[in-house]
Automatic annotation (TrEMBL), chain A:
Domain of life: Bacteria
Positions of the ABC transporter domain: 3-227
EC numbers on record: 3.6.3.28
Source organism: Thermus thermophilus (strain SG0.5JP17-16)
Any Pfam family: ABC_tran
GO (cellular component) term, any one: plasma membrane
Cited SMART domains: AAA
Keywords from the named record: ATP-binding, Hydrolase, Nucleotide-binding, Transport
PANTHER family: ABC TRANSPORTER ABCH.1, IMPORT ATP-BINDING PROTEIN
Protein's UniProt name: Phosphonate-transporting ATPase
From TrEMBL, chain B:
Entry annotated with the keyword Metal-binding: no
Organism listed in the record: Thermus thermophilus (strain SG0.5JP17-16)
Domain MacB-like periplasmic core: 29-258
Main location: membrane
Membrane topology type: Multi-pass membrane protein
Keyword Cytoplasm found: no
Domain of life: Bacteria
InterPro entries per the UniProt record, alphabetical: ABC3_permease_C (IPR003838), MacB_PCD (IPR025857), Macrolide_Exporter_MacB (IPR050250)
Residues annotated as domain ABC3 transporter permease C-terminal: 300-412
Keyword list, A-Z: Cell membrane, Membrane, Transmembrane, Transmembrane helix
Gene Ontology MF: a single term: transmembrane transporter activity
Family: Belongs to the ABC-4 integral membrane protein family.
Protein name: ABC transporter permease
Length: 228, 419
């Protein structure tokens, strides 16, 4: 098993008001799965993704990632796990604006302590993999939305993480480009990477083999299917 | 956990990222560093000019003679030079004091040179100008470190015989005779002919203490032919004395004061119509003044550096807020809190080190310019430049720490959500 959530609760406090974002979520994900987390905005799906990505800590419950309980980890250890085991892809790409495509891909490698030469070679490999080798020295604002998302994916794959987390990865793209990006995720999944997508678009969810539906902080459905 | 082995970003890498962030906003970065630049430049320039001035004054005082004591008019009427050197003023000291000192302190005083002086017309051929004419004794050469480089000083014989001989200051000799040999030439002081017997070496243009524009004649000749003869006892302006021993100069000064008070029939020090200045005291008072001034300037510079540091902190806080998103992304990609801390700290340190370096360079230039304007040769002191530089770096670290710490502990979810 790649990961397991056990009785995860998340309560946001804003002064006197407590807002429960997650009300006891249990979820297990096997290696090699590709699943979509669906739900309307405010359902708690983003919070769930943040907890899966070790960006947020649950108020209650245990998150076990690759056999490691994560609730007692230090900030540094969580940073290490994010670096090595989790690749993030965001709706708004979140490329660092002052860095070229190549340098963006190098960022996780740099934090992993990969020496510059190796780092450069690996980043070029990844850009080639997403078909953007000739754009290596372009700044993000010189790239189209689809190209930026490809750079973001290349960056997420930098350290070959077993888990790829994507938050509305096609949300800012036109349909055709979105399809291309999804095809890339499917390809990566076939090669063995576990992919978890958060989306509210059914046609995106259809590309996966498991759909987890979230409503009001709870999992209301967990549908496994054949490859779409 | 394998985590412990992780090196993270190298120093070079961290500095490169910091430099990129700084270079992305050149005007803002320059303005931020300006506070530090000005602070460091101020410290460097002020200490350099200050030390240059001190060295000038010290050299001046030391060049005046060795173990010099000066008997002059009462305190409060001493004019510039701390009473050590006199540039004219009324003649108030009876010449007989000089003889009395010579006799009473024969063991401890190796030279006595009473001085009376005034401005007179000097002429040779068609050249003529005003210069200070000093009537004195032959000991002046020794006591005031004024041995001629050509010819010799006049002798006791000349004094006793009231001969019309003159020793010229370097500048006077040059103006009158150019490249010709002045020795044996005839000059006229106030129309009275004198024969040049010696020329003093170049003593620089240090204002009132330089002998360059002075002419020295036997005191007896001066009193008889140049000074307006007044009724009563002959009086002089100043008596210069050379003590035999440096260690006992202070003691000699005190006994000399008592001796003269007794001679003048005075008991209350407030009534003393003379004072005795000591070369050592003058040096010490210069040093004390310089120390105070340096401390004061150091304080002012420290405040300006502090203000510079606050400027850095201000901009770094703005920068952290502006780059909240970047911080979130970096954290998602595996940056540890300490990586983020290092990144922002590096930025403020690069700013302050850059500012410090530019400040030292600017300070050198400024010291040169101010030095030229004040005709002081600035003395570069690596120590104070280093102190200013490291203080600037310290300011960068201190004021960079809080913004960097704020950046490091940002919640990644909040940071990513930040618009």
């Amino acid at each position: 098993m790649l990961l397991a959530l056990k009785g995860i609760r998340k309560v946001y406090r804003m002064g006197e008001v407590a807002f429960p974002a997650l009300k006891g979520v249990d979820l297990e994900v096997e290696e090699g799965e590709m699943l979509a987390i669906m739900g309307p905005s405010g359902s708690g799906k983003s919070t769930l993704l943040h907890i899966l990505g070790l960006l947020d800590r649950p108020t209650e419950g245990e998150y076990v990632l690759m056999d490691r309980p994560t609730s007692r980890l230090t900030e540094d250890e969580r940073a290490f796990l994010r670096n090595r085991f989790i690749g993030f892809v965001f709706q708004a790409f979140f490329l660092l604006p002052r860095l070229s495509a190549l340098e963006n891909v190098e960022v996780p490698l740099a934090y992993a302590g990969v020496p510059p030469g190796t780092r450069r070679r690996r980043a070029l490999e990844l850009l080639e993999r997403v078909g953007l080798l000739e754009k290596a020295n372009n700044l993000p604002n010189q790239l189209s939305g689809g190209q930026r998302q490809r750079v973001a994916i290349a960056r997420a794959l930098a350290l070959n993480p077993p888990l790829l987390l994507a938050d509305e990865p096609t949300g800012a793209l036109d349909t055709r480009t979105g399809e291309e990006i999804l095809a890339l995720f499917q390809e990566l999944n076939r090669e063995g990477t576990t992919v978890i997508l958060v989306t509210h678009e059914p046609h995106v969810a259809e590309k996966t083999n498991r759909i987890v539906r979230v409503l009001d902080g709870e999992i209301v459905a967990d549908e496994r299917r054949r490859h779409g | 956990m394998a985590e412990e082995k992780r090196i993270g970003l190298s120093l070079a890498e961290t500095l490169r990222i910091a430099w990129k962030a700084i270079a992305a906003n050149p005007l803002r970065s320059a303005l931020t560093a300006l506070g530090v630049i000005i602070g460091v430049a101020a410290v460097v320039a002020l200490t350099m000019v200050g030390q240059g001035t001190t060295r000038n004054v010290t050299q001046l005082l030391e060049g005046l003679g060795t173990n010099l004591l000066t008997v002059g008019p009462a305190q409060g009427n001493r004019g510039p030079g701390g009473g050590l050197v006199r540039a004219g003023g009324p003649e108030t000291i009876p010449l007989s004091d000089a003889y009395a000192i010579q006799e009473a302190f024969a063991e401890e005083v190796v030279g006595v040179a009473p001085v009376a002086q005034g401005r007179f017309q000097i002429r040779s051929g068609s050249t003529n100008f005003q210069a200070t004419v000093v009537g004195t004794w032959p000991d002046f050469a020794k006591v005031r470190n004024a041995e001629p480089e050509k010819g010799s000083f006049f002798t006791w014989d000349d004094v006793t015989a009231k001969r019309r001989v003159a020793v010229l200051g370097y500048g006077v000799a040059e103006d009158l005779f150019g490249t010709d040999d002045p020795l044996g030439q005839r000059i006229r002081i106030n129309g009275i002919p004198f024969t040049v017997v010696g020329v003093l070496p170049d003593k620089g243009d240090q204002g009132f203490v330089s002998t360059n524009y002075q002419v020295f004649v036997p005191l007896s000749t001066y009193l008889q032919r140049l000074a307006r003869p007044e009724a009563g006892e002959a009086k002089v302006n100043t008596i210069y004395l050379q003590g035999a021993s440096r260690d006992r100069l202070k003691d000699l000064q005190e006994r000399l004061t008592r001796f003269l008070a007794e001679r003048h029939g005075l008991t209350d020090p407030n009534d003393y119509d003379f004072s005795v200045a000591n070369q050592q005291d003058a040096l010490e008072s210069v040093n004390a003044t310089t120390r105070t001034l340096t401390l004061f300037l150091g304080g002012v510079a420290a405040i300006s550096l502090l203000v510079g540091g606050i400027g850095i902190m201000n901009i770094m806080l703005v920068s952290v807020t502006e780059r909240t998103r970047e911080i979130g992304v970096r954290k998602a990609l595996g940056a540890r809190p300490r990586d983020i801390l290092a990144q922002f700290l590096a930025e403020s340190i690069v700013l302050s080190v850059g500012g410090g370096t530019l400040g030292v360079v600017l300070g050198l230039g400024l010291a040169g310019a101010v030095g030229r304007a004040l005709t002081v040769t600035p003395v570069f002191s690596p120590g104070s430049a280093a102190v200013a530089f490291f203080f600037a770096v310290l300011v960068g670290i201190f004021f960079g720490l809080y913004p960097a710490w704020r950046a490091a502990r940002l919640d990644p979810v909040e940071a990513l959500r930040y618009e």
